[in-house]
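Example is below:
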Amino acid sequence: MTDFRPFEIIPGNRDKGMVILGDHAMRHLPERYGNLGLPEAAFSRHIAYDIGIESLCRHLCKRLDVPGVLGGFSRLLIDPNRGEDDPTLIMKISDGAIISGNHPITDEEWNYRIETFHRPYHKAVDETISAVAEATGKAPLVFSMHSFTPAWKSVPRPWHAAVLWDSDERAVMPLLAKLGADTDLVIGDNEPYDGALRNDTMFRHCMMKGIPHALLEVRQDLIGGEAGIAEWTDRLAPIFAEINADPAQHEYKRYPSRTGPYET
């Protein structure tokens, strides 16, 4: 277990004032869990990780010379983009796949996964964001990268990408505008999901702290290979850089969450 890393930090220039996150970038499991009772093929599906996101994050971090943090474990083990009190933190069933390694699960095992995987990942995110803030003396700009399936329950999803958010619109509005300027793209605004999720990564590290941010989802079939990843890197890198150059994206300002009041 000691050689299993629950996260990877991608090095970059902290003075750039930007951090890129990939919560569901990887599909790895420690040996002790086998395949959680699932067939090997399950780990090539979206239920295990966000297809294409690891490579896209690496390319963006390299192109922009900014640090990033990647989740090092499959979300089938525990979902880093859920709060510790979220009942979907460790899933029993995911898109029809029964995860026998997660059910039944003892309180001891539940807490072990939080302590061993979930918390170390979030500690790495917190430390990376804090290091960038310390280097610049300003709020960092945070982009969280995810991907979504081309269809859900046989219904096609028309969006090429989508921006998810709660109520802090500072990075969201320019991102939507710049992506939407390409008339060949269909861009979702809080579709196919709503970005207001209490205690998820953006809530925990950005909303609560008043840090500008946006969560961007790219459709998986568009970044399933190197050509698509290169295309989306070329598209996103200059947009991220342009947004990052705006001083308004580096001010601390806490917005009220649509999920309810912050805990004091």
About this structure: The chain is about 30% helix and 15% strand. The domain at 7-250 is CATH 3.40.630.40 (Aminopeptidase). The chain has a mean pLDDT of 96. The longest helix spans residues 107-136.
